[in-house]
Amino acid sequence: MKWALYTLLFTIATLLTGCEPLMVLDPKGPQAETQAKDILLSTGIMSFILLAVIAILIVMLTKYRASKQRKDYEPPHIEGSVLVETICVGIPVLIVIFLSIVSVQSNYKVEATPQGYEDKEPLIIYASSSNWKWHFSYPKENIETVNYLYIPTDRPIEFKLYSYGPITSFWIPQLGGQKYAMSDMVNTLHLAADVPGEYMGRNANFSGKGFAENTFHVKAMSEKEYEEWVKEVKKTAKPLTENKFTQLLEPGHLGQSTYKGTHLEFLPPPEGENGGHNHGSTHDAKAENHEDLSETSSESEHHHE
């Protein structure tokens, strides 16, 4: 049994060495790097506490294990130790205080413009979700994509998040933490990519039967490549009409598509910003207008590899 256990542990350790690193621990941007450091710090502290508790448990079980005593044996009276009680209460309090300070400092960092990019103009992208797809509007470039996102590296990205359906959660693990997208307000998420590459993005909040495939592709590229992509889209993509966008909002899964123009022109986002709620009154009125639209004409979508 002993050798069987050793073999099992060795096999598990060998297999784990071939696993790819967790995406949240493989950061490609300053926000994700801050969060990865916090995760590793918390894991290290908890691991130390766990090992210390196990060691103390072994010592106590070994040193103070039960032994045969005569029937009239009475254990000695022992007063409580102020030192022991102070250590048992004080150390957990200090750990909680330390982790709280680290968490608050990190929260301010990830909620602000990424460090090192304060002097650069951010690229503003409106990221809206619908069942079960993502719509990315580039107002300055006047283009829109579905289920994929192209961004330049070494430039701050300011996402404006909202939803045309249930609450979703916008998350690119290698660039930063998740943030909710809701129907009656706009949340702002600051990210940046330091390294060119392709990353996975997804909805991290359960939103119905299509949740598992509510993902999108992210590609970070140089500023020059990004500008060339924008020019190409403006030359080749078809315009996004109100009727076409109404079709895109229908529940279901779609591939990747690209359009000239954005839906912001005829269906602007909610007015509330970071906590200002209008409880969907404006959005509901717009939704009623969409229901009255005539039958939409079919349009071919422009796909980019």
Secondary structure elements and pairings:
Elements: H1 2-17, H2 30-63, H3 82-110, E1 123-130, E2 133-138, E3 143-146, E4 148-152, E5 157-163, E6 168-171, E7 179-181, E8 187-191, E9 197-203, E10 215-221, H4 223-236, E11 238-239, H5 242-248, E12 257-260, H6 281-291
Parallel strand pairs: 1-5, 4-10, 11-12
Antiparallel strand pairs: 1-2, 2-3, 3-12, 5-8, 6-7, 6-9, 9-10
Provide tags for this entry.
305 residues, alpha+beta, Immunoglobulin-like, 7-stranded mixed sheet, 5-stranded mixed sheet, 6 helices, 12 strands, 36% helix, elongated, disordered C terminus
Number of strands: 12
Beta-strand share of residues: 15-25%
Rg, Å, rounded: 27 Å
CATH superfamily of the domain at 123-268: Cupredoxins -  blue copper proteins
CATH topology of the domain at 123-268: Immunoglobulin-like
Q: Describe the biggest sheet?
A: 7 strands, mixed
Architecture (CATH level 2) name of the domain at 123-268: Sandwich
- The main sheet orders its strands as 8-5-1-2-3-12-11
Q: What sort of overall outline do the alpha carbons produce when their principal axes are compared?
A: elongated
Number of helices: 6
Question: Based on helices, strands and strand pairing, what is the structural class?
Answer: alpha+beta
- Give the topology string: H per helix, E per strand: HHHEEEEEEEEEEHEHEH
Low-confidence stretches: 278-305
